[in-house]
Amino acid sequence: MPRLNVIVASTRPGRIGHVIGDWFAATATAHGGFDVHVVDLAELDLPFHDEPGQPVEGGPYAHEHTRRWSTLTEAADAFVFVMPEYNRGYSAPLKNALDYLYREWHRKPAGFVSYGMSSAGMRAVEQLKPVVSALRMVPVAEAVNIHLRQAVTADGALAPTPAMTGAARGMLDELRLLTEVLTATRVAA
């Protein structure tokens, strides 16, 4: 079964990203198309990019945190980024995590679960798509966009809507299809 890394991109104290990430991971597990792993950037705790070499060189990496991140990323066949929108953009920890590596991202599909206030994170996703494309990932068209005012209760709990669940299933179906195609290209290369 292909491995899906669900990457929780917010590292802020008091964040809801890990709650959304856990919901999506449970939805992905129930989908049955992937071996699902949650990777929380707050727990990974990568420092600001500190490798002396260029990521395009593919190592050897000087630091244990980079080697651990490389292993986690290389093992995945697909990714879903659970990402907030901050000031109409994506988070600095997510950009930092992406920039640490290069070849580990190649020929793998990427999905997006975004959240925010007015745009549900869609502006951040549109900014991130060229970045993941430059890393030779393939962004899927289907996405989950969560309006926090509508999906989070007064006590801070996530209340998934049928639309959110339906969007998640559609994205997982598309991810699974692209994973099969792209895995074959990685094996052939």
What are the key terms here?
189 residues, alpha/beta, Rossmann fold, six-stranded parallel sheet, 44% helix, 17% strand, globular
Quote the beta fraction.
Answer: 15-25%
CATH class: Alpha Beta
Instruction: Specify the oligomeric state.
Output: single chain
Gyration radius from CA atoms, angstroms: 16 Å
Distance between the termini: 20 Å
Describe what this molecule looks like in 3D.
The protein has 189 residues and is an alpha/beta fold. The chain has a single domain, classed as Flavodoxin domain (Rossmann fold, 3-Layer(aba) Sandwich), CATH 3.40.50. It is built from 7 helices and 6 strands; from the N terminus they run βαβααβαβαββαα. It has helices at 17-31, 41-44, 64-75, 92-99, 122-134, 148-151, 162-188; strands spanning 3-8, 35-40, 78-84, 109-116, 138-139, 144-147. Strands 1, 2, 3, 4, 5 and 6 form a 6-stranded parallel β-sheet that branches. α1 packs across α7 (162-188). The radius of gyration is 16 Å and the shape is globular. The two termini are 20 Å apart. The mean pLDDT is 94.
Write the layout of secondary structure elements.
Layout: E1 3-8, H1 17-31, E2 35-40, H2 41-44, H3 64-75, E3 78-84, H4 92-99, E4 109-116, H5 122-134, E5 138-139, E6 144-147, H6 148-151, H7 162-188
Quick synopsis:
This protein is an alpha/beta fold and 189 residues long.
